[in-house]
Structures are given as structure tokens and as C-alpha cells.
Automatic annotation (TrEMBL):
GO terms for molecular function: DNA binding; DNA-binding transcription factor activity. Keywords: DNA-binding. It comes from Streptomyces colonosanans. The keyword Chloroplast does not apply. This is MerR family transcriptional regulator. The keyword DNA-binding applies. Pfam families: MerR_1 (PF13411). SMART domains: HTH_MERR. Residues 22-85 form the HTH merR-type domain. InterPro entries: DNA-bd_dom_put_sf, MerR-type_HTH_dom, MerR_fam. SUPFAM superfamilies: Putative DNA-binding domain.
Length: 172
């Protein structure tokens, strides 16, 4: 169920390559979106040459949503407006919403009635169930490396007993 690892995930950050793999985007896209303020890393921004950005679980979910909108032809300007809206939402609200778009405007639907009202307009509409994206990202990140925000300790699949992670942490 979405949100089960919410408390634990608040203490884990993901480096750029991991965020890219989980969201299905290129590093070039990630870098551009961070530099232009579309999706900035909320855990740790880059502070110049040599520093690593660190993305939260929620950031990765938003990255995947942006990717899905781009794949369906929504303009970057409309995506920016949608991301601004998502930034203001909490974890609970985010995983329960459905985002709909007609290609020009992005709508938030939090009830089946709102989805139905949009569909009755007769125009082509597509939707993104954020809860499904949430689960996709959880599944992808469970196979990838994260790190504890407070200590920098490597976490593999949120399983701190992983042998490779233990070795890597001893070497640090």
C-alpha cells in the first residue's frame, strides 16, 4: 500500500543516477529540470562542482509524473504549473490524487465525480493515477541505492542488512 514506508523514506535520499533510473529519465533531463527549477532536489541541492544532488522519494515521484506528461505531449509551461501545485501538497494528498490533462491544461481530481465531470466534456483526456506512479517508484527504488540523509550511509533497497551496503559503509 502506498505510504507504508513514508516515515523511513523521509530519511533516505537518492543521487541523480538513481532518481533517473526510477523515474525513467536521462541524466541530462534531470540536470536541466534541476537547473531551471522544474524539479529541484529537496534533500540536498548541488552546491557547485563535485557536490551530489540528493532527491527525496517525493521528488522522484514528481520526476516520473513530469516524464509521463512530457510523453503525452503536455507543454513544459503547463507541466511547470502542475509541479508548482504538487509542491504545495503533502504526501498523503499526493498519493491519493489523479492528474488529468487535455494536453493544454492539467487538472487535479481527488474524487471520481471530478474525473467523470472532465470526461463528460467529450474531449480527449488522459489521466495519471499518482498512487500507481507512487507504487512504481517504490518498486524501482527498492532495487536501487539510496543513502541515509543524516549519515550518508548507503542503503540498498531499504534493506540495511545488505552485504554490499555494509561493505561500502565500512570503507567510508
Amino acid at each position: 500500500m502506498p505510504g507504508e514506508g513514508e516515515a523511513a523514506s523521509e530519511h533516505i535520499g537518492y543521487r541523480g543516477p538513481t532518481a533517473c533510473a526510477a523515474a525513467g529519465i536521462t541524466y541530462r533531463q534531470l540536470d536541466y529540470w534541476a537547473r531551471t527549477g522544474l524539479v529541484e532536489p529537496s534533500v540536498r541541492p548541488a552546491y557547485g562542482s563535485g557536490t551530489q544532488r540528493l532527491y527525496s522519494f517525493r521528488d522522484v515521484v514528481v520526476l516520473k509524473i513530469v516524464k509521463r506528461f512530457l510523453d503525452t505531449g503536455v507543454s513544459l509551461q503547463n507541466i511547470r504549473s502542475a509541479v508548482q501545485h504538487l509542491r504545495q501538497r503533502g504526501f498523503r494528498d499526493l498519493e491519493l490524487m489523479t492528474l488529468m490533462s487535455d494536453g493544454a491544461t492539467v487538472y487535479e481530481c481527488t474524487s471520481p465525480d471530478e474525473v467523470h465531470a472532465l470526461l463528460q466534456g467529450g474531449q480527449g483526456i488522459f489521466g495519471i493515477a499518482v498512487g500507481v506512479v507512487w507504487q512504481d517508484v517504490e518498486s524501482a527504488l527498492s532495487q536501487l541505492h539510496g543513502e541515509r540523509v543524516d549519515t550518508g550511509e548507503a542503503i540498498v533497497g531499504h534493506n540495511t542488512t545488505d552485504e554490499l551496503a555494509r561493505r561500502r559503509n565500512r570503507a567510508v
